[in-house]
């Protein structure tokens, strides 16, 4: 038997109101909570994390952060040491097109920061 729509609403209301947690129960201060701060592979503990928001809370957050870090390093090596696109591609294990894309994005970000435009 498939429950009717009103039955589902009644079930939600009951489960929320009659759950294990009381609605008027206050949230405990941190000193009264048993929380083991184990950190992650990016920081030893959550309290010592350099990020304002946990990268694991965002979709593909760690992957995006690592990609941004890689792209910054590609840009730095291209500008400061004069490395070529093919050489950078071999160093980072990516295609030359990926290196070109990273350099293009770095150039666009730089011009956006400085207020320059392409004309």
Index terms:
119 residues, mainly alpha, elongated
Percent of residues in beta strands: under 5%
Domain count, please report it.
1
What structural class do the secondary elements suggest?
A: mainly alpha
> What oligomeric assembly is this protein in?
single chain
| Average pLDDT for all residues | 80
- H/E series: HHHH
Radius of gyration computed on alpha carbons? 25 Å
As a percent range, the share of helical residues equals 40-55%
Q: What general outline do the C-alpha atoms trace?
A: elongated
How far apart are the termini?
Answer: 67 Å
Number of helices: 4
Report on the biggest sheet.
none
For the secondary structure, the number of strands is 0
Could you list the spans in which at least 5 consecutive residues all have pLDDT below 50? 1-17
Please tell me about this protein's structure:
This protein has 119 residues and is mostly helical. The chain has one domain (31-114). The protein contains 4 helices and no strands. The chain is elongated, with a radius of gyration of 25 Å. The N and C termini lie far apart (67 Å).
């Amino acid at each position: 038997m498939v429950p009717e729509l009103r039955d589902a609403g009644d079930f939600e209301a009951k489960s929320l109101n009659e759950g294990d947690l009381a609605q008027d129960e206050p949230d405990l201060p941190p000193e009264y909570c048993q929380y083991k701060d184990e950190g992650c592979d990016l920081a030893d503990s959550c309290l010592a994390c350099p990020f304002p928001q946990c990268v694991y809370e965002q979709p593909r957050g760690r992957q995006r952060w690592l990609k941004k870090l890689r792209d910054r390093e590609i840009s730095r090596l291209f500008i400061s040491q004069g490395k070529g696109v093919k050489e950078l591609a071999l160093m980072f294990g990516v295609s030359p097109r990926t290196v070109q894309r990273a350099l293009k994005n770095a150039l666009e970000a730089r011009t956006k920061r400085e207020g320059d435009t392409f004309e």
